[in-house]
Amino acid sequence: MKTASQHLRPLALKQLTITTQAHLPSQIPNIRLFASSTARSPQPPSRQTQSKPTPRTNFTQNKKPILRDTIRRFIPEEAKKFVRPDGTLCTTPETASVFLQHNIEPDNGAARRFTAGPAIQNACKAYHAVTAFSPRHIIHPHDLRFFDPRGHPLAAARREKYLRKSREEPLWIMVTSAGAASTVVRVQTQRRLKSAIYRCLEDLGLPNGIGEHKEIRGTVWVTLYDPVKASKLPPEPFAEAIARALKSRCAQPLR
Asked: Where are the residues of the annotated region Disordered (predicted)?
């Protein structure tokens, strides 16, 4: 069985192609920024012999890590016109250039489930949450709307925001909610958990993911599937489990 550290390998961008969308004027070019992928080419089936038949259990064991590793991609409604189901973002050349040069990933489905030991698994179960990690910086799902290929009045400001974050903050933390709850409950619960994770990292000697000789570079994405229940629980136990797992599994020497 693969360990969590083996799942957290760097992800590579697919190719960039310049194209023109059919529903846009022909003079407005856009760049299709293809999402990261860890998919592998299918392997040819091994030959079975009477002396050494392929056990059925081996097939099941090979499939389990893939199912456990995958998370559900989230594309907000307002971004579905220019973000494909596979996570491909159709955007402007300016945005694509910034994302590529600074290793910023628009596809949140490129992150992988973060199950680094029983402590974090128990915490996620108690808070009805799924935690994912990517060694790359991932755009917040609700910010995808600013990178419409037809342009957006706040696109330049958002590009500058992510450019600054990529330079100053090695660790990005996102907390989103998928369950039914009021906006106030969702926002407050998300902020409490996010702040608690940063505090726990600071207590462990990694404020904002930066330590004396090590750093945690990438994105942590927590999805709450019952924000009402999570709002009634103290954020510290969950945050501490996340912070300790990040320190033990994801800390790397300073660049």
From this structure: 37-63
Would the pLDDT of 64 be above 90? no
- Tell whether 54 is covered by a domain: no
pLDDT tens-place string over residues 162-173: 999 999 999 999
What count of residues does the chain have?
255
Residue 248: other Cβ atoms inside 10 A: 13
Residue 140's nearest CA partner among 210, 235, 37, 219 is: 219
Structure tokens at 144: 């995808």
- The label of the residue with tokens 């925001």 reads 161
Burial of 47 (0-12, 13-18, 19+ CB in 10 A): exposed
Q: How many distinct structural domains can be found in the chain?
A: 1
Residue 43 forms part of a structural domain = no
DSSP code of 48? P
Q: Each residue of 209-245: b (16+ CB within 10 Å) or e?
A: bbbeebbbbbbbbbbbebbbbbbebebebbbbbbbbb
pLDDT exceeds 60 at position 66 = no
- Residues 6 or more apart whose CB falls under 8 angstroms from that of 203 comprise 243
Q: Say if 99 falls within a structural domain.
A: yes
Tell me which residue range forms the domain holding 103: 4-36+68-253
pTM assigned to the model: 0.73
